[in-house]
Write a structure and sequence with these properties.
The complex is a heterodimer of chains A (154) and B (254). Chain A contains 7 helices and no strands. Chain A is mainly α and 154 residues long. Chain A has one domain (3-153). In chain A, helix 1 (3-18) runs parallel beside helix 3 and helix 4 (65-82) packs antiparallel against helix 5. With 254 residues, chain B is an alpha+beta fold. Chain B contains 4 helices and 12 strands, in the order ααααββββββββββββ. Chain B has helices at 6-19, 21-48, 52-84, 86-97, and strands at residues 99-106, 114-117, 130-133, 136-144, 149-153, 160-165, 171-176, 182-187, 198-201, 213-223, 228-235, 244-248. In chain B, the strands form 2 sheets. Chain B has a 6-stranded antiparallel beta barrel. The longest helix of chain B has 33 residues, at 52-84. The model of chain B has no long low-confidence stretch (mean pLDDT 81). The chains are: A mainly alpha (154), B alpha+beta (254). Chains A and B meet through helix 1, helix 3, helix 4, helix 5 and helix 6 of A and helix 1, helix 2, strand 1 and strand 2 of B.
C-alpha cells in the first residue's frame, strides 16, 4: 500500500466515524494525521500523501473546497520542508508536526469559513488535543500496513 | 512509448480537481457510496448488537403507538379535509411523504457541519430540500449528486433559518454557530423568550415547511443598554443518534 492510498482510506474512515460522534469537534482529524505521518515516515514520496489529503478534502467539502484542499496540501508540503531540520524518527516531533499542520488548517478555516468565537475556539483547542492523542494509533496503523514506513527499516 | 512520470499525472489530476471540483465531488461521493455504506453498516452492527433485546421491546411498543396514531391521524385527516378541501390535502400529503435516506458520513473538517446522505437526484432529492427526523429539523440539502447528497446541518455557520418561538410567536433568524448550538438573532430587547421555549421554523423560505422543531432555547442574554437580546438554541436533533432522515421537496417545486 502506498502513502497516498493510506491517506485516502484514512479519510474515508474519518467520514464514516465522524457520523457516530456527537460533534465533528470531538472527532480526531485522521486525514491530517495520516497525511503528516505518511510524509514523515515515507519521505521519498511526499507528494502522494499531500495530494491525496488535499484531493480528499476538496472532494468532500462544500464550503471553500479549493482553499481547504490547498491548505491540506500546503500543510503537507510545509511538514516535508520542516522535516529536513529535525529527527523524523522522534515521536515527539511527529506529534508536533501533526499539531502544527492542524493549527494551520484551523487558521485557514477561521479565515475563510467560520467566525472565531470563544465557544468555537475552545472546541478547536479540544479538537487539537484529541487529534494529538490519536497520533500513536495512526502511526502504529501506518507501520503495520506499510512495513517500509518503520523508521528503523530505512 | 515514453513512460509518463507519476508527478506529471498527479499534477494534471490536481488541475482537473481545481477546475471541476463540483461535478467531481458528485462523482467521488457516488464512488465512495459503496465503501461508506459497507463501513457504516458494519459499524452500526457492532454498536447496536448489544442493544438488540431493548430494541425489540422498543419496536413492539412503537408499533402499538403507531397503530394508535394511525387511528388518530385518520380522524384528523377527516377534519382537515372538511376545513381545507380534499385537493389541498392531497397536495400536502404528496410533499410530506418525502424521500427516506440514511446518513453515510460527515464532513472531514470540523468547521463545516455537513453530512452525506445515500440518496440523490435519482431518488428525488433536490437541492434545498428540507431534511427532517422524528425529533425535528436536521438541515437542508446543499448539493445533490445522482446517488448521494450533502446536507447543511442547522449548526453550520452558513445555515440561516427563519424561525418563531412556539409559546410567544416571537420571530427571528436561527443562525448556526459552527459549534454545538445555534443563535436566534434579530429579536427585540423586550422579546418574550425564555429558557426551554421551543423554536420552530417560520416557513418563510421555500425550503422549510412551517412548524418544524429546530430546537429549544438553552440560554438567553439580555443586553438592555444595547437594545439586544441573544438567545441560544440547542438543536433538537443529535446527528450521532440519527438512523434515517426524510428529505422533503422544497415548496417551490410543488
Amino acid at each position: 500500500m502506498s502513502g497516498a492510498i493510506f491517506v485516502g482510506v484514512s479519510a474515508l474512515l474519518h467520514l464514516v466515524l465522524g457520523r457516530w460522534m456527537p460533534s465533528p469537534w470531538v472527532m480526531p482529524d485522521l486525514t491530517v494525521t495520516s497525511m503528516v505521518l505518511a510524509i514523515l515516515l515515507l519521505p521519498r514520496r511526499p507528494l502522494g500523501p499531500a495530494a491525496a489529503g488535499g484531493a480528499m478534502v476538496m472532494l468532500t467539502t462544500v464550503h471553500h473546497p479549493l482553499a481547504m484542499g490547498a491548505a491540506y496540501a500546503a500543510a503537507g508540503g510545509l511538514v516535508k520542508l520542516c522535516s529536513g531540520w529535525w529527527d523524523l524518527t522522534s515521536p515527539a516531533f511527529q506529534r508536533a508536526a501533526v499539531i502544527a499542520a492542524q493549527l494551520l488548517l484551523l487558521a485557514v478555516a477561521f479565515v475563510v469559513s467560520v467566525p472565531l468565537t470563544r465557544e468555537v475556539g475552545l472546541l478547536a483547542a479540544g479538537h487539537l488535543a484529541i487529534t494529538a492523542m490519536c497520533v500513536p494509533l495512526v502511526r502504529w496503523l501506518l507501520m503495520t500496513v506499510i512495513p517500509s514506513a518503520r523508521p528503523d527499516m530505512r | 512509448m515514453p513512460r509518463v512520470k507519476p508527478s506529471i499525472l498527479l499534477s494534471i489530476a490536481l488541475v482537473g480537481v481545481v477546475l471541476w471540483h463540483q461535478p467531481l465531488r458528485g462523482l467521488a461521493l457516488s464512488l465512495f457510496r459503496l465503501p461508506l455504506t459497507i463501513a457504516q453498516s458494519a459499524l452500526g452492527l457492532v454498536i447496536h448488537l448489544p442493544q438488540l433485546p431493548h430494541h425489540l421491546q422498543e419496536q413492539e411498543a412503537l408499533r402499538r403507538a403507531l397503530a394508535r396514531q394511525e387511528v388518530e391521524l385518520a380522524g384528523l385527516r377527516e377534519t382537515v379535509r372538511h376545513l381545507t378541501g380534499a385537493a389541498q390535502l392531497a397536495k400536502h400529503g404528496e410533499r410530506s411523504r418525502g424521500v427516506a435516506a440514511s446518513l453515510l458520513g460527515r464532513a472531514l473538517l470540523p468547521t463545516q457541519q455537513t453530512a452525506i446522505l445515500d440518496k440523490g437526484t435519482r431518488d428525488g432529492v433536490a437541492p434545498d430540500s428540507a431534511v427532517v427526523a422524528a425529533e425535528g429539523l436536521v438541515g437542508r440539502v446543499l448539493e445533490a449528486a445522482p446517488k448521494t447528497s450533502v446536507v447543511l446541518l442547522v449548526t453550520d455557520a452558513n445555515s440561516r433559518i427563519g424561525a418563531a418561538v412556539e409559546r410567544s410567536r416571537e420571530s427571528g433568524l436561527v443562525v448556526g454557530s459552527g459549534g454545538r448550538w445555534c443563535e436566534l438573532r434579530y429579536l427585540d430587547a423586550e422579546a418574550d423568550v425564555e429558557v426551554g421555549d421551543r423554536v420552530l421554523t417560520a416557513g418563510l423560505e421555500g425550503a422549510f415547511p412551517k412548524g418544524l422543531l429546530i430546537g429549544t432555547v438553552a440560554k438567553v442574554e439580555r443586553q438592555e443598554s444595547r437594545g439586544l437580546l441573544r438567545a441560544w438554541v440547542r438543536p433538537a436533533v443529535s446527528i450521532n443518534r440519527l438512523e434515517d432522515v426524510l428529505c422533503l421537496a422544497p415548496s417551490s417545486s410543488e
